[in-house]
Amino acid sequence: MKITRKDVESVALLSRLEMDEAAMDKFTGQLNSILEYVDMLSKVDTEGVEPTAHVLNLKNVLRADAVKPSLPRELALSNAPEQEDGYFKVPKIMEG
Amino acid sequence: MAYEVVIGLEVHTELKTESKIFCGCSTKFGADQNTNVCPVCLGLPGVLPVFNTKVLEFAVRTGLALNCEILPFSKFDRKNYYYPDLPKNFQTSQYDLPIAVNGYLDIEVNGETRRINITRVHMEEDAGKLVHAGSITKSEYALVDYNRTGVPLLEIVSEPDIRSADEAKAYLEKLKAILQYIDVSDCKMEEGSLRCDANISLRPAGATYLGTKSELKNLNSFKAVQRGLEYEVLRQTEVLEEGGKVVQETRTWDEGRGITASMRSKEQAHDYRYFPEPDLVPIVVDPVWIEDIRKKLPELPDARRARLINDHNLSSYDAGMITSSRAMADYFDNTLKAGADAKTAANWLMGEVSKHLNLSNCEVEDCPVTPEKLVELTKLLDKGTISGKIAKTVFEEMWSSGKDAATIVKEQGLVQISDEGAIIAVIEAVIAANPQSVADFQAGKDRAIGFLVGQVMKQTKGRANPEVVNKLLRERM
Hints:
- The structure holds two protein chains of two kinds.
- Chain A is of the alpha+beta class.
- Chain A has a domain of 38 residues: Histone, subunit A, CATH 1.10.20.
- Helices cover 34% and strands 9% of the residues of chain A.
- Chain A has three helices and three strands.
- In chain A, strands 2-3 form a two-stranded antiparallel sheet.
- In chain A, a hairpin with a 2-residue loop joins strand 2 and strand 3.
- In chain A, helix 1 crosses helix 2.
- By secondary structure, chain B is an alpha+beta fold.
- Chain B contains 15 helices and 17 strands.
- In chain B, helix 7 crosses helix 9 and helix 12 packs across helix 14.
- Chain B is elongated, with a radius of gyration of 29 Å.
- Chains A and B meet through helix 1, strand 1, helix 3 and strand 3 of A and strand 2, helix 1, strand 10 and strand 17 of B.
């Protein structure tokens, strides 16, 4: 699979990353060489091998349904770029 | 052209656990904004989620109650999208290996039973709540409360098997009843613990392909589900009849205006780039545990309804109404335990009890007249101690004062008069005062007796036994 310039634009948009033309070209090239390298894996015979869901050989790590103290609100909001009235304040979402 | 309506519902239900799905914050509704939050649900760097056992149990119970197959191996995935209600920019959800698949539930609409298949039930975390200054499209900024972030949710997805707005409503009502019976969710639509999105499309009658759908959001009540879908059927029919094409889009139901409107979001396309959640390990459910949960499932609405029809001779309609909520069905069963006759109890439940619950906007759990007290009242009626009309008055008094029936009857002197001597005196006075009605009756107008009975009842303040009055009046005339 070849990564096109359009793919990079679309991933950048989805990730909210702003980049100039030169960066777009650079990433298109780099992403392609990464994918080519990883493509080696497709040569491995995986017949009868279950897909890996997790790299650790663990299952069912669970906790009991018990309430623990939450953060004080001032602390929870302390890293927010903007806040108002105990809320996190964010830019508008929908286009009018 | 005749069109067939094709609807699939995606229902989200908040599970009634004490703590959130991946952290120990409380799930309590209505707390002050951003007070039930911690580094895990705020998505701060370096934290690790740990899965709540109760969520798994509730999910398995729900899957079983919806006739699903429980997958022995299940996992979480990240659903990536940028929206400020998710502090992590992804929602921890399930993608290709949900906890339960391939179920169904049966609904009844206009006397016809239809099976609606359920594609899947998966576990995920709820998102935060956005507060907009003014309307969602016009406000310049939004305020975010993350209390709800991480509250455990089940998403229950139906196949596109629903064929009308009425069926959609029936499906949702049935689903709600089941979720309440198995005690996994409050299902309060007004508090958002039961939410519904609908995919709806039209196709020419008889076609097997799917038409272009619109996705309806903001259906916040059963009425909204029904009205929103009815509107959308009309809108899409109009578009198609004018030779146009339905646009695939998300639309929001505007309750005030009674219409659906297109929602344009900044996100270009839904491209969630799901991948396995590396912070959570897979879930492998023990079949023995699944069977244990299955054995402990309570009697579900359909079975309960069948029992009321078969064992207690209730009509299909009455049994359906009574079992539509677990609390109502429990109330009914408790009246039986207290020695009620099933039909009598059903009549009271569907009549006076429901009427008063509606009038005072009260849930049956909080009904001031307990099943035991109601049975005492019906027994006074059966024994002939009070008349049917007086029984309703006594019920009202029981509702408002909390006193039991016998006390009220005694205090207010409401005992039915069946003593013929006492009734004859009143009858003679009524006959003397209404010669015209007596003459009418004697001339063959049978209806005239109704008026005379009424007069006797009035003079005895409703306490005379109507049967005795009727018999004695006829004898005297």
